[in-house]
Amino acid sequence: MALRGIKVLELAGLAPAPFCGMILADFGADVLRVDKIGSDTNVDTLGNGKKSIALNLKHPDGVTIVRNLAKKSDVLIEPFRAGVMEKLGLGPDILLKDNPKLIYARMTGYGQTGPFAKSAGHDINYLALSGLLSLFGRKHEKPVFPVNYAADFAGGGLICALGVTLALLERQKSGLGQVVDSSMVEGTAYVGSFLYRSQVLPMWGRQRGENILDTGAHFYEVYETKDGKYVSVGALEPQFYAKLVEGLGIDEDEAPHFGDFDKLKVLFEAKFREKTLEEWCAIFDGTDACVAPVLSLEEAPKHPHNLERGSFEGGVPKPAPVLSRTPGKSKGMEKLPQVGEHTRAVLASVGYSEGDINKLVENGVIDVCKSKL
Question: pLDDT by residue (tens digit) across 131-149?
């Protein structure tokens, strides 16, 4: 795989940092998660196929272990607020001195500098500060956030993984590592570059929920079907809109593409309630009407298109994009590591003797619990 041979040290966190580590692991990297002793990382559902070492980073010997591991790693991912790693004695100045080739990825909400750098926050806050949350929602309603998808994962973990791979690519030329300052606010705004740059186009210019792409238009909307399910419609271009109204059995003179959006929504709502989702799929599948069923998480892996492409494995999305020679392989079906499950093996691999390891256990520096599976 593309990242085979790359060793990643991932300090345990939730959502964005584990997602970054998951991406690297799915494309071949060997990822070791550094857990806190006694922690419960079962909520980290992205840890499949990773190894776990449990450390007490408040103990000097725990810090030394991380430094020793970082010396033999290509990438370190840390999810803490600005300044935390420095207080632990594990800042980039120290670790990059130990290992000049290390890619030091810092996954934070607000970045390493600025008034908010040391403030707490979550996806909804980062999305808000990026400017994008103001665009999401229906008219006359407050902004609606798309769960914690946009900032945590698109602007967070995915952008961080991009930064890591870019730094790895550059390292081939310079032989040197560097710091990746991955701010979820900035990553989210960057993913939304089209929304920023397209505001001059006629598709925008109205209040939230009254524009073509934000639920304002009848031809870019979600409609309920006769059986209480939903269908998505995205017939932006005139040739696609013509196919849409044809499938609906509506004369285009009765429903002009850029007619009264509100009135036409009422018409479309009534039309889509006349048939079940399966019936609409029979009409629109294979056409250019830009109509697709709204599938549940259970239904999506079973859809014929996704089945033919093998888009899911065991209900888990396969790595994307698909590389022709060195495709990734999801670790989602592998087991989640128990905290400290690989502590002994990992320490032995970097030169710690059995006696050293037993002493570290006695001193509360490490945990060596074994898998129950």
Answer: 999 999 999 999 999 999 9
Active site residue 122: yes
- Phi first, then psi, for residue 32 (nearest 5°) are -110, 120
Which residues lie closer than 8 Å to 109 by C-beta, 6 or more apart?
A: 81, 116, 119, 121, 122, 125, 126, 151, 183, 184, 185
φ, ψ for residue 359, nearest 5 deg: -65, -40
Catalytic residue chosen out of the listed positions 30, 74, 123, 152: 152
Q: 348's torsion region: left (phi>0), alpha (psi -120 to 50) or beta?
A: alpha
Asked whether the CA dihedral 196, 199, 205, 206 is positive or negative, the reply is negative
Q: 346: closest CA among 145, 70, 159, 116?
A: 70
Tokens of 247: 């499938």
What is the distance of C-alpha 189 from the center of its chain? 15
pLDDT per residue over 47-79, tens digit each? 999 999 999 999 999 999 999 999 999 999 999
Scan for tokens 């309920």, then name that residue. Answer: 224
Token digits of residue 215: 């639920």
φ, ψ at 54 (rounded to 5°) = -105, 125
| Structure tokens given for 357 | 């390891």
The model's pTM is 0.94
Tokens in use for 45? Answer: 């559902």
CA nearest to 62, candidates 349, 367, 365, 368: 365
The 3-class SS string of 290-324 reads CEEECCCCCCHHHCHHHHHHCCEECCEECCCCCCC
The side-by-side arrangement of strands in the sheet containing 230-234 is 220-224, 230-234, 291-293
Cα–Cα distance for residue pair 106/81, rounded to 1 Å: 9
Q: Does residue 257 have an active-site annotation?
A: no
CA-wise closest residue to 340 among 39, 42, 52: 52
Could you tell me whether strands 291-293 and 230-234 are parallel, antiparallel, or unpaired per DSSP bridges? Answer: antiparallel
Tokens representing 317? Answer: 């999305």
**Tokens (6 digits) for 129:** 């500060």
Q: What percent of the chain has pLDDT over 90?
A: 96
Residue that has been written with the tokens 């639920």 in this structure? 215
Q: Give the containing element (helix H, strand E) for 71.
A: helix 60-71
Among 93, 98, 122, 305, the active-site one is 122
Rg (C-alpha) for the chain, rounded Å, is 25
